[in-house]
Amino acid sequence: MALKGLWDRIRGKEPAPTPPPEQPGHPPQLYPPGNAVPEQAPVLPVPAVPPAAGTAPDFEARLPEPAAPPPVVETPHVAPTDDGAALREALARSVPETQPEPEPAPEPQAAPEPEEVAKGGWFSRLKAGLSRSTARLTDAITTVFRKRRLDEEALEELEETLIAADLGVAASRRIVEGFRRTRFGREVTDEEVKAALAEAIAEILVPVAQPLAIDRGHAPHVVLMVGVNGTGKTTTIAKLGQQYRDQGLKVMFAAGDTFRAAAVEQLQIWGDRTGCAVVAPAKQGADAAGLAHDALARAKAEGVDVLLVDTAGRLHIKSALMEELRKIIRVMRKLDPTAPHSVLLTLDATTGQNAIQQVRIFKEMVEVSGLAVTKLDGSAKGGVVVALAQEIGLPVHMVGVGEKAADLRPFTARDFARGLVGLG
Ligand SMILES: Nc1nc2c(ncn2[C@@H]2O[C@H](COP(=O)(O)OP(=O)(O)OP(=O)(O)O)[C@@H](O)[C@H]2O)c(=O)[nH]1
Ligand SMILES: [Mg+2]
Fold this sequence. Notes:
Residues 1-84 and 94-119 have low confidence and may be disordered. Strand 8 (370-374), helix 13 (384-391) and strand 9 form a beta-alpha-beta unit. The chain has helices spanning 2-13, 85-92, 121-129, 131-144, 152-164, 169-183, 190-205, 233-246, 261-274, 288-301, 318-335, 354-365, 384-391, 413-420, and strands spanning 147-149, 187-189, 221-226, 251-254, 277-279, 306-309, 342-348, 370-374, 396-400, 408-410. 41% of the residues lie in helices and 10% in strands. It is built from 14 helices and 10 strands. Strands 5-4-6-3-7-8-9-10 form an 8-stranded mixed beta sheet, sandwiched between helices. Magnesium ion binds next to helix 8.
């Protein structure tokens, strides 16, 4: 079988991957107030589940077989000859609109403050976060439709405006067709157009607006976080950890981005801040699958409700990333044939249409079960969520409009649609 061949290659012949260079711009504001990076970050000892996390290359071979074969569908096969051109392109084009300035010393960021949720309410946070996207969409509408008959030319301009606002061609056509059916030839104002637009957008979003449901029956419910580097995997884990803890759930983080010491450290700091246990690798470059296995064993033993598994976002070739993710899944299924229960793909909204391509690539690699769209606050391309709903149709579980825990919330179709067109 192809996977066995790949594994043999990795075990026998391929040299250990060299850790990729440290990436600047993991912003310093991740660190808690007055709490510089601890010299010796507190690491919860990895439990005595032989073998130790990611130490032996034949780790997988020594695991016990599960009692029953996993009832879960195999992830689709991708030809190993794929040299990752598509992923590299996606990576290259996924540079955020504003690059964070690399800073030599980490600057503390305020710890998540639950009371902030109440201040102004979520909708105003969302609306404020979407303001750049809103301006992009509504400025043109206000100019074009101050008072105008909805003729062919007007509809064409509307379609162009929607496409320019990143809603994608398919969703834009669908919306314009709706306008044609219901309002053609009528005189409309910009306010009417916005209200009708909000309704049409909400209609597209409703089917995908599904919260991430944690099933406590799984003990733990395992969430595998995947995505291109810098899209917000680690911070989304931290925010979710904080929220689940606030709900009284027992949460554990697995620092599966084992190649970068800074990534492990980042998660450990979040673990300290949120009070969530962190299972970290014994050494840099340890096998991520081994780490995930150990974390799951420990989570089961300790009665954890939710295990959030971080992963690397930047393996330089697609086949290496695919193999790592699939191996993490395979190895966790030795302990729980139903794991992972959610595979959450984080998408950075500032990358606009490139997010669509990222979803397609990750769907080839693993069974992505839902999306988290981050950084809507820094983006003028929030309309891409509508394109994702229309063209991909995967559940959008949550959206992020800032760096605090309260800035990540379940995705609600109506609020998002009204926020996007700037309605109250
Ligand atoms: N403004 C804003 N920043 C965010 C949001 N979500 C994440 N970030 C920031 O984006 C940066 C990258 O986030 P990470 O969580 O480290 O991203 P990652 O996917 O884990 O990155 P790698 O580990 O490099 O693959 C951090 O500075 C986060 O604070 C958001 O919703 N809004
Ligand atoms: Mg990370």
